[in-house]
């Protein structure tokens, strides 16, 4: 533990960097994917383009996407924006489909009832359809946040990796500094679990109406939707 | 000359397509990448699919599976690779990387198989039991064919995750297409780095398309049209990479 105790300030500041690298893309990605998901749900043609394209983008391995970003954006190789832009792409790719599917799952009768009560398209989206989509949306955001936190470490290979620094640096020290590597891994896992838990709580707080309906069926579904 | 031209030149340079003087070319690195990936996915499938089918059929241990899978998603692949390679030594680096890749693929396959079998229409299972099928027959003739879309989906995401992680294996001194990215970075040769990235992305996309095609071919026609708007939402969340 000596190494860890001596390096607490460095670990903490790297953890802050790490969170920023991982979560800013989640926020930006969410903002971008809401309209895209709406469009994908609204028009079949848009869905037929957006869903496969995001599937393919999501397929590209992180190391490759990080390295290709300067090609697409004209940025420098070591610019942190490369990692953040790549993680934003993953978040959008993941959420567009979730949002489109969640909106599609809102029962027609509910949408029609809202229209009958006088909601126009935009108002109905924010007051009725979006709130009903929250459980699926939160599940998607949790996956995006957790996998982004784990993927930031890969960015260390091209020099931008938050806590990933300790993984490579510890491995390249001679003899290898196991304390440093394990501290890095443990902090990454801890950040992921804490963020995941907080998002789950936020999701529950935002959807008070779902709590009464938890039967055995509901539990079975939560397994599928992981 | 633009960056795109540089990358194009690097990729079309015949010297980069053959192994000369111990410097591996693209075919050899691709072969290594496929070897790591294939071996790991195969081992993981042999472990995870029977186990997932058993847990899904009996329903015992389902919560454990979900917990294990969720906690593995948080584990950084790079850290796992580094720890295993250091612990087993560089002479066993290939074995260490294979273990790491298997560890990453097993939870994905386990979750897919488990939820696939678990979510087969209970009425169909009851009907099969009522017709006098044994538990084995129910599993092999009813549950697994019905679960096939989810199982193959899991094979696809596991394979892609393994391809992605195998490209990081170069950071712990192994081969594979990631070698071009790591070496290019070390030598400050962006054309080699970017060409490596393009190759990795190309490999992933080709494998994704092939497996999607396979999934479409293999799955029973009776299950294909089921993706109505309502059922889609159930499978809306893709597994992590």
TrEMBL record, chain A:
Q: Does the keyword Oxidoreductase apply?
A: no
* One annotated GO biological process: glycine betaine transport
Instruction: Name the principal localization, coarsely classed.
Output: membrane
The UniProt record lists the keyword Mitochondrion: no
Task: Could you list this entry's UniProt keywords, alphabetically sorted.
Answer: Membrane, Transmembrane, Transmembrane helix, Transport
Annotated membrane topology is: Multi-pass membrane protein
InterPro entries linked: ABC_transp_perm/SBD, MetI-like, MetI-like_sf
Which residues are in the ABC transmembrane type-1 domain? 15-199
- Cellular location(s): Cell membrane; Membrane
Transmembrane parts of this sequence: 21-40, 46-73, 125-144, 151-169, 181-202
Top-level taxon in the UniProt lineage = Bacteria
Q: Which GO terms describe its cellular component?
A: plasma membrane
Query: Pfam families attached here?
Result: BPD_transp_1 (PF00528)
Cited PANTHER family = GLYCINE BETAINE/L-PROLINE TRANSPORT SYSTEM PERMEASE PROTEIN PROW, OSMOPROTECTANT IMPORT PERMEASE PROTEIN OSMW
- What protein family does this chain belong to? Belongs to the binding-protein-dependent transport system permease family.
Protein name according to UniProt: Osmoprotectant transport system permease protein
What species does this protein belong to?
A: Actinokineospora terrae
UniProtKB/TrEMBL annotation, chain B:
Keywords, comma-separated and alphabetical: Membrane, Transmembrane, Transmembrane helix, Transport
What residues form the membrane-spanning segments? 36-55, 80-110, 162-182, 194-219
Where is it chiefly localized? Answer: membrane
Q: Does the keyword Transcription regulation apply?
A: no
Q: Which GO terms describe its cellular component?
A: plasma membrane
Every copy of the ABC transmembrane type-1 domain together lies at: 30-211
The protein's matches in PROSITE patterns, at most eight in alphabetical order, are given as:
ABC_TM1 (PS50928)
User: Do the record's keywords include Lyase?
Assistant: no
Name the GO terms of the biological process aspect.
glycine betaine transport; transmembrane transport
Membrane topology, from the record: Multi-pass membrane protein
Q: Where in the cell is it found?
A: Cell membrane; Membrane
Top-level taxon: Bacteria
Coiled coil residues, start to end: none
Q: Which InterPro entries match?
A: ABC_transp_perm/SBD, MetI-like, MetI-like_sf
| Family recorded in the similarity comment | Belongs to the binding-protein-dependent transport system permease family.
Its recorded name reads: Osmoprotectant transport system permease protein
């Amino acid at each position: 533990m000596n190494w860890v105790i001596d390096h607490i300030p460095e670990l903490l500041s790297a953890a802050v960097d790490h969170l920023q690298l991982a979560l800013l893309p989640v926020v930006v990605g969410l903002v971008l994917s809401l309209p895209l998901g709406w469009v994908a749900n609204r028009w079949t043609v848009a869905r037929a383009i957006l869903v496969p394209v995001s599937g393919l983008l999501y397929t590209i391995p992180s190391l490759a996407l990080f390295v290709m970003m300067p090609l697409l954006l004209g940025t420098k190789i070591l610019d942190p924006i490369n990692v953040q832009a790549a993680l934003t792409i993953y978040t959008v790719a993941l959420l567009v489909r979730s949002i489109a599917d969640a909106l599609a799952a809102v029962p027609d009768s509910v949408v029609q009832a809202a229209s009958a009560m006088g909601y126009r398209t935009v108002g109905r989206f924010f007051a009725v359809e979006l709130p009903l989509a929250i459980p699926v949306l939160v599940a998607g955001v949790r996956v995006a946040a957790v996998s982004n936190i784990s993927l930031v470490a890969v960015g260390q290979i091209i020099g931008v990796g938050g806590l990933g620094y300790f993984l490579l640096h510890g491995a390249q020290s001679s003899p290898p500094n196991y304390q440093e590597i394990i501290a890095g891994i443990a902090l990454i896992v801890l950040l992921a679990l804490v963020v995941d838990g907080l998002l789950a709580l936020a999701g529950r707080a935002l959807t008070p109406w779902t709590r009464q309906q938890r039967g055995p069926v509901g539990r079975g579904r939560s397994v599928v939707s992981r | 000359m633009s960056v795109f031209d540089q990358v194009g030149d690097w990729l079309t340079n015949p010297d980069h397509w053959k192994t000369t003087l111990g410097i591996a070319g693209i075919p050899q690195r691709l072969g290594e990448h496929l070897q790591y990936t294939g071996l790991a996915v195969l081992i993981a499938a042999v472990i995870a699919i029977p186990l997932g089918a058993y847990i899904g059929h009996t329903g015992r241990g389902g919560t454990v599976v979900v917990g294990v899978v969720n906690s593995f998603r948080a584990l950084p692949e790079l850290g796992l690779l580094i720890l295993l390679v250091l612990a087993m030594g560089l002479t066993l680096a290939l074995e260490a990387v294979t273990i790491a890749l298997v560890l990453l693929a097993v939870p994905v396959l386990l979750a897919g198989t488990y939820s696939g079998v678990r979510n087969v229409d209970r009425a169909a299972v009851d009907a099969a039991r009522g017709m006098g099928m044994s538990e084995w027959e129910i599993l092999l003739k009813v549950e697994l064919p019905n679960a096939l879309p989810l199982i193959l989906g899991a094979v696809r995401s596991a394979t892609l995750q393994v391809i992605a992680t195998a490209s990081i294996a170069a950071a712990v001194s192994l081969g594979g297409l990631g070698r071009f990215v790591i070496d290019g970075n070390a030598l400050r040769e962006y054309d080699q780095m970017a060409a490596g990235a393009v190759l990795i992305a190309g490999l992933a996309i080709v494998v994704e398309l092939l497996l999607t095609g396979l999934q479409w071919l293999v799955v029973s026609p009776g299950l294909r049209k089921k993706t109505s708007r309502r059922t889609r939402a159930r499978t809306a969340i893709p597994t992590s990479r």
